Amino acid sequence: MLKFFKKEYLYSVVLTVVGVVVALLICEFGLRAYFSIKSKNDKYYVWPPNLRKVFKPTPGTMPGVNGIAHFNVNSDGMRGDEISSGKQYRILTIGGSTTECLFLDQEKSWPYALQKKLNNLSMSKFWVGNVGKAGLSTREHFMHMKYLLPQYSEIDAVIILVGCNDLTRRLIEDKKYDPDFLDHYEYWKHRLIKGAFSETPYYRGKYRFRSGYYDELAVGSVIKQSMDMYSRRKMIQDEAGNMFINLRNLRKEALKIVEDLPDLNSGLEEYKRNINAIIDIAQARSVRIIFMTQPSLWKKEMTDEEKNLLWYGWIESQKSRKYYSVAALMRGMQAYNDTLLQVCRARGIECIDLARELPRSSTMFYDDVHFTDKGSLMTADVVSEYFRKHPGSK
What we know:
By secondary structure, the chain is an alpha/beta fold. The protein has helices at about 1-40, 95-100, 110-120, 140-150, 165-175, 185-195, 220-235, 245-250, 265-285, 305, 325-345, 355, 375-390; strands at about 50-55, 70, 90-95, 125-130, 155-160, 255-260, 290, 320-325, 350. The protein is globular and about 85 Å long.
């Protein structure tokens, strides 16, 4: 009798295992078939299409940012209005968080304010789409140029506000920093696509059995994507902006302030190569491209009130409790801005020196580099005035 029960138990276990394996195989190949069909009409989306978020900053966390902020994404995954089928001069803005303007209301974000100002200045119709996204550097901007421009052949001009994230990436990664991104493009490609876009078409290797670093089961990939989406949703759920309180406190509690920057030459050389590669893509598609230098609050003489707004500059990780000084960050940002200006002069490319145009004041920035309402609207003023003087053409 005991043997009979053991056999029955063994059969049950085997049948259960077989059933689970068969179910997983059905899911695996079903998902592959689904994504193969889905890929025929899919695009690259920076933000989930038709995303709607509302932010309610806690008073005092972001001085100079007032009221509720609406973050509205169109059906193409861009923050902004839908692209009209009518005649328009279409501008795409690319950058990191200072282009994204996450905690600023749609109307006060500088790309959307720019659209309104240009339409008020001209008889022509303008559309401005915003694909700025926090943390992205020229590596991801290159990916946006590479994958978005072929999707939207009607884009007339691209404006890129750039520099801060290239500097901070170099400083944070330090000895782990790889300056040869373009030479190692195939190695970086898939992780940069993942960082640059929230949704992508199916591509070979996205859902398949594991045989390398980026290959994986379709089921596992879907689970990972769901976890990533949940993680991003949690991150973006800080509707009050309370994270800035914690980030500022970490800098205030720093055990060491470092005055000397590491050698930035490798980072600046990569920055130069990436900018040139971005220019090459724009010129190959006959798209007007305008760069902007990165302004910041960093300056030689800062009030205690201004210092209390800062949180950038950690070394290796925020847990290290080591930070670069304001003077070091200012020198680093100037080096990247100067490099951008040099490349643009050498290539005959338009560049707005926004860092010179905006005052280094807490009326312009609520932390190291992010715009207040006033700073964002002034940026829109500077860019719209530039377009008034240099209307240009595709």
